[in-house]
Amino acid sequence: MAYDYKTIAAAATGVFKDKGSKFLSFAFPVEAEEQAKEQVRKIKKEYFDARHHCFAYRMGAGGEQWRASDDGEPSSTGGKPILGQLLSRELTNVLVVVARYFGGTLLGVPGLINAYRSAAADALDNAQVVEKAVQEIFTVTFPYRHMSAMMKLLKEEQAEICMRQCDTECAFEVAVPLRKKEKFLQEAGKLGIMTKGLRD
Question: How do beta strands 12-18 and 65-69 pair?
Fold first, then answer.
């Protein structure tokens, strides 16, 4: 079971040129498939005059969700080399889009594979790689008088508050690092705090 994963901190760009063709690359941190699709749509709109917009993404702590698109290039010459860069660097929750401007000279299959791989590599070389903890989301409910104990527990277990509602009773949605999950649930139980996993 993975407790941590590698991703990028922010968007980054790169470029590769070969025989007049220009390959502009864009790397984005993404959390969901719809977010990745939206970024692809934005790049296609902004660089509408590019001949192809190939892309690949990986998502999930182990990169179990992925997709690669050649966008009209010969099969496996665009998306696959981009995906290969994400795999070789063990990156997940990352999308890379490469927009190609044709320069008039055909590059052939090996040339295309090299171009898309090199463009993706350039964007990822320019990105800051960060390690993040795999988290699980819980809803915790407790009386307001337990607020200080709850805040202390969240701090100790490095949990983040995603949403909070408070009156006489409080309800928090918290993201708990997977490696701290058992301890968090145990300590919450001792305090009489009700916890419910979003997957339960």
Answer: unpaired
Handedness of CA 31, 37, 41, 46 (dihedral sign): positive
**Alpha carbons within 13 A on the beta-carbon side of 32:** 3
> Using CB atoms within 10 A of its CB, is residue 139 exposed (0-12), middle (13-18) or buried (19+)?
middle
Topology classification of domain 4-131: Ribosomal Protein S5; domain 2 (3.30.230)
Q: Where are the alpha helices (DSSP H) in 47-177?
A: 79-88, 108-125, 147-156
Helix (H) or strand (E) holding 122: helix 108-125
What residues does each domain of the chain span? 4-131, 134-197
Per-residue pLDDT of 114-168, as tens digits, reads 999 999 999 999 999 999 988 899 999 998 888 899 999 999 999 999 999 988 8
- 134-197 fold: Alpha-Beta Plaits (3.30.70)
- Whole-angstrom distance between the N-terminal and C-terminal Cα of the chain? 19
